[in-house]
Amino acid sequence: MKIQLGILLIFFAAIGFAQFGPQTPFSDRFGQNSMNLPPEFYSLEWNGGMQLKAKPTDLSIEIDSMGAQEINVLVDLKDRPVLYTSDISTPVCADGDCRLMDIRLYWTLLGEYAGFDRYPNSPLTKHDHDEFLSADYRKLHQLLMDDNSILKRRKIDELVKKPEQPEMEGVDAVAGATIKEVKESVVGGALYSCYTAWHLVHGPIKDAIQKRTLSLVDNDMVLRMLGSNNTDYQMFALKRMTEEQYAANYLRIAQIFEDGVPLIRTFIVKNLPDRFWNSERLQIPFWDNFSEVDINSRSLLLDNLKNSPVSVLENLSQELSVMTKNQLNLYLMHLAELKQIKPSILTNIEIFANSPSETYAYLATDFLKDYKL
Amino acid sequence: MKSILLILCFYLISLGLYGQDLLIEAESFDSPGGWVIDPQFVQQMGSPYLMAHGMGNPVKNATTVVNFPETSTYHIWVRTMNWVPGEWEAPGRFQLKVGDTDFEKVLGKRSGWGWEYVGATEISTKFEKVELIDLTGFNGRCDAIYFSAKNEEPPSSPKKLASWRMTIAQEPNAPKQHQAYDLVVVGGGIAGCAASIAAAEQGLKVALIHDRPMLGGNASAEIRVHTLGIYGHFERILKKLDTEHYPNGSAEAKLDQKKRDDNVKSYENIDLYLNWRAYDAVAENNTIQYVDARHTSSGERKRFEAPYFVDSTGDGWVGFWAGADFSYGRESVDTYGEEWEEWGELWSPNEEDNAVMGSSVLWGSKVMDTEQKFPEVPWAMPVAKAYEEVNGEWQWEFSRNDLNQIDDAEEIRDHMLRAIYGSFSNAKEHPENATRRLEWVSYLVGKRESRRLVGDHIFTFNDAKAGTKFPDAVVQETREVDVHYQTVLEDEKNPDFISEALFYKTPRYYIPYRSLYSKNIDNLFMAGRNFSTSHVGLGGPRVMRTTGQMGAAVGLAASLCKKYDVNPRQVYTGYLKEYLDLIESQKYIKIPKSKQ
Ligand SMILES: Cc1cc2nc3c(=O)[nH]c(=O)nc-3n(C[C@H](O)[C@H](O)[C@H](O)COP(=O)(O)OP(=O)(O)OC[C@H]3O[C@@H](n4cnc5c(N)ncnc54)[C@H](O)[C@@H]3O)c2cc1C
Predict the structure, then answer these.
(1) What is the pLDDT of residues B213-270, one digit of tens each?
(2) Which residues pair with B277 in a beta bridge?
(3) Are residues B115 and B197 both part of a single domain?
(4) How far is A315 from chain B (nearest CA, A)?
(5) Relative orientation angle of helices A325-337 and A295-302, to the nearest 10 degrees
(6) Is B74 in the same domain as B93?
(7) Does the keyword Iron-sulfur apply (chain B) (predicted)?
(8) How far is A323 from chain B (nearest CA, A)?
(9) Is the pLDDT of residue B591 over 70?
(10) Is residue A229 a part of any domain in this protein?
(11) Contact across the interface for B395 and A176, Cβ inside 8 Å
(12) Any A CB within 8 A of B484 CB
């Protein structure tokens, strides 16, 4: 434990222990250099039974007047890196009044924010020295998860301007990023702590960690990332996989397509190797999610209609209700170009055309009229 | 009486019927009352239309007097659309009154633009008053009213409708009136205004064709975006056009509106065609011969001929009609190497796609002295969901990959209206908003990105990053490159009408003249957000002082084109020094000859 922390502990012991709600004792989570429970505030999934051990790295964060603070890598029992962490002690200064903030930070293998732990004996405090409440910690966690926070592009003194002062330099986007927006995203009365923490988490260390990971990356790591629920991991893996790996892992990829955020889904449909669109077996699992996924992903799927098997066209004829106007038009135009349309498909279109609650029934009616001509 | 001239009729002699048919264009009504003329979607749905944009308060009747050549029984149809079909009452309902007859039929209920049958009536006097009665204040729309002796619905499909309209109007698409200029500028945003002024100051006779009653495009009091960016060499001209730094959506936009309109109107050799919308441009041998335009309410047509044209429509319309190369959507990251690792796909995708920055509808509300009611808006809720807000800034932005920012602009605008009314309705649930009232909701789509015409140089993110000092640099900027994405991409729980911006800090960067004229149409300049750029490249210079610089730069180039009888490219190849000197001279306030 660092000397500064020791001093602080004594200081806090003297003023009394912070009041905490029920929580896992810090030492259980990360005692004796090993960790078997997730950080208290954590944004990734934690596999039950996982045990992590801290190992030193040559990475560090330089903090004003405190020097270099080391970054450890947390590895699993097979010695594979899982997280990065650092016990941070940093001054937080407002109006010339400085206090120390102690916090244990965690990063993903890609240098993204992963979570934090508070020190039981050194709670975070606000400008007026009040301690953070549970809700404040949660808010801090939310803020740190936002990698494009309004805090990113502004200097601290720009964030505390009086409302009557005109907005600073305008930009299409930031013109609207008023003090109100800052207020909404930071812990009330703790702007400086929030600002300091955000910039530590999202500072140069991010790139340094990523660089380290890139030097270690192997197939196993890629596949572990593919197995993760974390969007950045999934994207990292998908961008590095070979065509063979795509094919071998098609069910997992289809699963991500189903569960993932729209950004990942759209990446997947756009980047599936051609062989997917030439194989019924490989593409069906993606089409199967047509009605479940977001509109953008659906549009991208429909871009592949020309390579889809009849069974897909047939299934889609039962999903006309979820299509937007342009999607429906696209689908019908595709059918119109076919030499022959399966009778069951036409029946489904007819049912849709006759349904009074369908907004775009008229498109189906027009299609049927033209088709019969 | 204006309407008498506009009433269009034809005889159905060929069918052996004796009767007369009349098509009344709603935008040509004598008095629109509280309805607004909406010409934004002519290229998609066929015509300007009247819209009851009352923000929830039914608007005053629109009225006109129709001259019936024949007293007889007429069947009546109205061309309209239910803009939010679904399991609720249509939001934009209205009724028709002809003479003393109030038709019971409630209109505005069909999906997609088309005709609704109103009923039949006996017309016994030659002149009858026709009225549109708004029932909701929520954007009911009426394109045209058709009176016919025959009970036969006019065609709905856009193609058939267009030729039907022309037959019934006995009107050729080609205008009879021709007008010749040195330079024709289409689109009166800041870019188009600056181009007109710069050219006019060099003695060119300029036509500025603009489809709105006021100038400024996104910076106008109708859309209310403030102008950003630097002045470059054109401070004097741009100060005549730009805005103060009020918040986007602010009513203060009105002050700068007057300044801008007065300034442009003060130029004798600018013929300003307000409320004229261009609808065609024809090129022969890669040279545009003319642009055709139509008045947005009277329907009058004019042909504008000139040796040079500026496309400052934002949507690259002139280039599109003339066959200019253009791009739309995001290039793949490798096309120009525009990667920003930190933001990956959100910044520039592995594979190209048709995503673009979205369009906005700005709005605001106001606290009043007394309690203010706001109607229930069930039809808005599927879009707004639980989102609540009392005004809208730039982040109110919508784009989706099945929607094209030009072809589907009406749907995009309507989606935003639902987002606004729904979010405001949610906010009104709170007692503290009891006295709030919607003060202003634009009905114009403020666009950021659509077609980008291709020039000899395509400006990219790398040009901005490197601050490349092109030999033909005519525009400069220091503003960061910022690209937007819809936050729903990151989390499906987010509303689909809110965006986020990613900023990349660059050094001062320059735009070359070669990005301001078309690669394959020899006499076409472009200025504004439809200049020659990549998707990410547009992220910086799309703001309106920068687009204004582009306008001023092409206005000056046009003067050299005229002086030497050359095309825009030849100004670069043959007269660059003179051109740059001319631009440089703009920096200094001109001293009138008499005082030299
Ligand atoms: C919500 C929002 C916020 C933004 N924030 C900022 C900001 O803070 N500062 C800033 O500087 N920029 C901002 N931008 C970007 C900027 O407003 C746009 O890039 C702008 O379009 C650039 O101006 P322009 O002259 O190229 O086009 P526009 O302003 O779109 O002008 C083109 C004009 O041409 C007219 N027109 C189109 N077709 C025709 C036709 N066929 N015939 C006749 N007339 C036609 C249109 O009605 C329009 O008025 C914002 C944009 C939006 C939507």
Answers:
(1) 999 999 999 999 999 999 999 999 999 999 998 888 888 888 899 999 999 999 999 9
(2) B294
(3) no
(4) 20
(5) 10
(6) yes
(7) yes
(8) 10
(9) no
(10) no
(11) yes
(12) yes
Last residue of a domain, one of B130, B146, B168: B168
Mutation to probe ligand 1, out of B38, B225, B277 (largest number of atoms < 8 A from CB): B225
**What angle is formed at CA A105 by the lines to CA A99 and CA A111, rounded to 5 degrees?**
130
Question: Which domain-ending residue is among B141, B168, B195?
Answer: B168
Mean pLDDT (10-residue bins), chain A, 373 residues: 40 35 43 82 91 94 87 95 94 82 96 94 87 94 93 80 43 44 84 92 95 95 96 96 97 97 97 96 97 97 95 97 97 94 96 92 91 74
Residues 6+ apart with CB under 8 A from B103: B76, B95, B96, B97, B118, B119, B121
- Cα B585 to Cα B574: distance, rounded to the nearest angstrom: 19
Does A362 lie in the same domain as A257?
yes
Instruction: Specify if A224 maps to a domain.
Output: no
- Looking at residue B272, its pLDDT comes to 98
pLDDT one-digit tens code per residue, A96-133: 778 889 999 999 999 999 999 999 889 999 888 889 99
Same domain, yes or no: B289 and B188: yes
In chain B, the residue whose alpha carbon lies closest to the alpha carbon of A327 is: B402
Subunit contact A167:B393, Cβ cutoff 8 A: no
Q: Indicate whether A213 belongs to any domain.
A: no
- Encoded tokens for B423: 């979010």
Mutate to test the interface with A, among B82, B156, B401 (most CBs of A within 10 A): B401
Q: How far is the CA of B425 from the centre of ligand 1 (A)?
A: 29
User: How many folded domains does chain A comprise?
Assistant: 2
Q: At B458, list the tokens.
A: 């395509």
Claim to verify: residue A104 and residue A11 sit in the same structural domain: yes
Judge if B452 and B557 occupy the same domain: yes
* Span B404-442, pLDDT tens digits: 999 999 999 999 999 999 999 999 999 999 999 999 999
Residues of B within 8 A of A360 (CB-CB) are 111-112
Is the domain of A320 the same as that of A186? Answer: no
In this structure, what token pair is assigned to residue B208?
A: 């500025």
Range of the domain at A365: 242-372
Distance B450 CA to ligand 1 centre (A): 11
The more confidently predicted of residues B40 and B7 is: B40
All residues of chain A having their beta carbon less than 8 Å from the beta carbon of residue B500 are 148
Say if strands B178-180 and B114-122 run parallel, antiparallel, or are unpaired.
Answer: unpaired
Best residue for ligand 1 mutational test, from B391, B412, B544 (most atoms within 8 Å of Cβ):
B544
Asked if residue A27 belongs to a domain, the reply is yes
How many domains would you assign to chain B?
Answer: 3
Residues A278 and A194 in one domain: no
B487-511: per-residue pLDDT in tens? 999 999 999 999 999 999 999 999 9
DSSP category for residue B392: E
Q: Give the CATH number of the domain where residue B551 resides.
A: 3.50.50.60
Alpha helices, DSSP H only, in chain A?
Answer: 3-15, 26-29, 134-145, 156-159, 179-185, 191-201, 205-216, 219-227, 231-240, 243-248, 250-259, 262-271, 274-277, 280-287, 295-302, 310-316, 325-337, 343-353, 361-372
Q: Which domain holds residue B135?
A: 2-168
The pair of structure tokens assigned to A197 is 């923490």
How far CA A345 is from CA of A289, A322, A331, A360, B492, in Å, comes to 19, 16, 12, 17, 31
Judging contacts by C-beta atoms under 8 Å, the chain A residues touching residue B345 are 235, 263, 266-267
- Residue B351 inside a domain? The answer is no
Q: Is residue B345 part of a domain?
A: no
* Residues of chain A contacting B, Cβ within 8 Å: 148, 153, 166-167, 170-176, 231, 235, 239, 261-263, 266-267, 270-271, 294-296, 298-300, 324-327, 357, 359-363, 366
How many whole angstroms separate alpha carbon B214 and alpha carbon B192?
Answer: 13
A173 and B344 within 8 Å at the Cβ level: the answer is no
Pocket of ligand 1 (CB under 6 A): A 172, 175; B 186-191, 209-212, 217-218, 225-229, 248, 277-278, 312-315, 317, 360, 362, 394, 446-448, 528-529, 542-544, 547
B32 plus B109 within the same structural domain: yes
Ligand 1 centre distance from Cα of residue B530 (Å):
10
B245 with A271: Cβ contact below 8 A: no
Average pLDDT over residues B67-79: 92
